[in-house]
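Hi all, long-time lurker, first post. I run a small reading group and we've been trying to get comfortable going from sequence to structure in the token notation. Rather than ask abstract questions, I figured I'd post a concrete chain and ask someone more experienced to write out its structure so we can walk through it together at our next meeting. Sequence below, copied exactly:
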Amino acid sequence: MVNTLSAGAYFIFLLCFSDLTYGQIRYSIHEELGIGAFVGNIAEDLRVSVRELTARNFQLISDNGKQYFEVNEENGILVVHNRIDREQLCMESSTCSMFLEFAVENPVEMFPVEVEILDINDNSPIFPSIRLELQVAESATPGASFPLESAHDPDVGNNTISTYKISANEHFGLKMQTTSDGSKLAELLLEKSLDREQQTTFALVLTAVDGGIPGRSGTAQIIITITDANDYVPVFDHQIYRTNVLENAPIGTLVLQLHAADLDEGANAEFKYSFSNYASQRERDLFNLNSETGEIIVKGLLDFEALDHYELDVQAVDNEPNVGHAKVLVRIVDVNDNSPEIKLKSVIKMIPEDTAPGTVVAVFAVTDRDVGENGHVRCQISINVPFKLQATLRNHYKLLTTDILDRETTAMYNITITTWDAGSPSLSTNKTIVVFVSDINDNVPRFSQSSYNVYVMENNIPGADLISVRALDPDLKENGEISFSILENEIQAVLAPSYFNINSKSGSIYALSSFDYEQVKNFQLKVQVQDAGSPPLSSTAMVRIIILDQNDNAPVIISPLIWNNSEALSIVPNSAYPGYIVCKVMANDADSGQNARLSYKLIETTDRRLFTVGLHSGEIRTTRIFTDQDTIKQRVVVSVKDNGQPSLSSTVTILFSMLSTVAENQSERIEHPSNFDDSPDLNIYLIIIFGSTSSIFLVTIIFLIAVKCKHDRNNMLFHSPTICCCCMSRKSNDIFNSGLAANQSLNYYAAGQKHPVSESYGYTVRLSPQSSKSDFLFLKACQPMVPLTDIRVSDSLR
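-- Answer (accepted) --
Happy to help. Here is the structure in token form:
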């Protein structure tokens, strides 16, 4: 297949564009060659193989509307594609050439090709009329000449008219003249005097012969009528008139006024102006000659670009008729009446934004039909665009990029090419080239924030949106299509996607489960956004999910220990003074902040005047001294409430048992002594009383322990084997009598001392620090089934 493009069509350039080649290939052929006739071997002249021409997608561009040539892709030879008529292409110009451009790709190169069209003798001379009539006075003397209408031959050079011939006769011959442009003119020459009475008319044959090989000719018949004598002929005051007229001069514009004179008198002196037979029909269409005044005016549209001068043959004819001849040379002056033309040869309408500077985007030519300064053109493009013009061969330009393009900044360029000539006034032409910038994946998607903080209330509903992250990628299509994902970082040894999921399109993050603030306080997620370009680009952002506490945990009583899953037991001495700490309620709340801020309140008691509880400490204190009227067993209910909204609370019931002993009564008496100091035996009495009281108190403790153990065994049989038994075995007496083993201990604490909750087994026993009191008080129960080996005695009692 032969690759050709008409003027104005474009071909696709590669982005790597080589410079245009300035060497020119020139061929010469004759017109009227047959289709397929050899013109030249393009492949050989370019020194490339035929295979390379095909691989490089060779193309032929012509300035003419009709494609006259093509390249045979099998052998790389330039051949004739359509019939070429030189006269049609170049009219009567002495030279005729067609300019082509031969283009190849990979890399792109352009080679100017000039094909000169040589004339052949394919046209015969033709006279405007096949019958020419002349009137010659019989008084004409030998040597007089009479202009004859010229024949026309569109061929040029030797193929145009070279001579004229006339048929044989004894009175007339031919005289040849050559004009300034080389044209041949014939004049009828009178060689022998005429006698009208012998012969009134002559019929001659005029032949125009060209110089071609073989020669061609055309004929016309000349009818000559002999008239009576008129002694003088009209004579012009100039044999040659010269004048200038602007092209595009309005119709009716005066070109020149002729003037002739006839020395005859009367009617023989009267004459009229007219164009001679030499004047062509084209000249008669452009100019008008007033027969009376001799004024030559513009009749048609003059165009310098069509023909820049005219030779008008004029005559003055009197009544005989005698004819006087003159020549008028009219030079057409060029005016700047043609705007420059911009002819696009090729255009790349879309280029990638990473196109290298210096890439050719378009190739175009600028022409102006005017000449001189009027035809001298200059060219420029719009400012503030990353493009420039570079001049090449024969008013050709190429449009190149000057910088890296950025589609995100400018996606389309309207490049206006302006060309103007140097005429006065100057004429200009504009043409706009639209170049689109195609996208590449050169932008990393960016999050709107580098990190996000999300606050989520615990016990959230799984599946509800927590946050929507936002990202932007200014690229287009797949390069700008973003998707979100959670990177597989670990959260408490579990992959993040096990806790959370993200909508890949919208960026909405939602939880897969409900959170518990008491188990985990926050999460750190690394979220990635990635585009669909090739290769894909991505960025990350940190999402910190902070779990907010909800008041979902009620306070838990951790002290005192609950007895029988319902009540706590405690022993209070009757000797407790006001403000004495009989028990401390301790609670814990798994919540935090205000949700874990606890307050204590006494909500129920046997005697409200006997106990009070600290609002924030939980310490239960006595408010007064016990009296004999007070109930031995007191029941106190304490409420522990947090500060959450809504508030949650727990209650604990504590049973207090009042302990009254002889030692206590004695000590009361000692605390209020009379004047026994006067008795000399007072110390003896006191020693006896103290010893008796101690013995009774010890027997009482042993009795109470035995009763309690029996009671606990019964409970353990009928209720639960896990109920704590805080009693001593029958070997208790051995403990007190023989002392504890080295690995056995019993812990004692001072009165009112805060003791921690632990898993160790032991008794909490108070030894009253008061003056004469030796009270053993059981303030706290031990764990169930206490082994004696775990009972610890503090060093202070050893």
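A couple of things your group might point at:
The first helix runs from residue 42 to 46.
The domain at 230-335 is CATH 2.60.40.60 (Immunoglobulin-like).
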